[in-house]
């Protein structure tokens, strides 16, 4: 996983650190960064005009998190204004990988990857990513992610 630059991202979602998200050291508890990523991914889909999760499950499939990796560079603290950058980094047959970066102003605090697998809603067995979704994501990002 390479260290992202703000220029790698088209989409950013702002979040302010709330009191309930910090630990006794007055820094954001590590698990909250995954919540920040999840919120930003939902807002990324909203920015594309998709209703999450209903539009993504319209073909009988659904998405499940398969993998989440975070790398911490510096801590966020109570009341910091953060910007969470999200982009599609890679497509697999049935998966898509989001790259994520969290910044406070120009300082990178956290980087990571969240991998979603597309699966049949009933059997939960993997199924190919819908082509309409791949086309929409490539058009939005103005570039084709790695396959």
Question: Can you lay out the helices and strands and say which pair or pack?
Answer:
Layout: E1 11-16, H1 32-47, E2 61-72, E3 81-91, E4 95-104, E5 107-120, H2 131-141
Antiparallel strand pairs: 1-3, 2-5, 3-4, 4-5
In total, the number of strands is 5
- Helical stretch tally: 2
Overall 3D form: globular
Structural class, by secondary structure, is alpha+beta
Strand content: 35-45%
Terminal Cα span = 16 Å
How would you describe this structure to a colleague?
The chain has 147 residues and is an alpha+beta fold. It is built from two helices and five strands. A five-stranded antiparallel β-sheet has the order 1-3-4-5-2. The longest helix has 16 residues, at 32-47. The radius of gyration is 16 Å and the shape is globular. The relative contact order is 0.22.
Outline of this structure?
This protein has 147 residues and is α+β, with helices and mostly antiparallel strands.
What tags apply to this protein structure?
single chain; 147 residues; alpha+beta; 5-stranded antiparallel sheet; 5 strands; globular
């Amino acid at each position: 996983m390479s260290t992202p630059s703000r220029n790698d991202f088209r989409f950013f979602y702002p979040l302010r650190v709330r009191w309930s998200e910090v630990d006794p050291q007055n820094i954001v508890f590590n698990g909250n960064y995954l919540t920040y990523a999840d919120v930003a991914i939902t807002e990324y889909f909203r920015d594309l005009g998709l209703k999450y999760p209903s539009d993504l499950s319209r073909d009988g499939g659904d998405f499940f998190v398969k993998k989440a990796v975070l790398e911490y560079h510096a801590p966020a603290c109570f009341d910091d204004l953060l910007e969470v950058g999200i982009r599609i980094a890679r497509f697999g047959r049935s998966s898509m990988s989001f790259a994520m970066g969290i910044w406070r102003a120009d300082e990178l605090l956290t980087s990571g990857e969240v991998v979603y697998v597309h699966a049949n809603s009933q059997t939960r067995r993997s199924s190919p990513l819908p082509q309409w979704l791949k086309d929409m994501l490539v058009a939005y990002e103005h570039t084709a992610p790695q396959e």
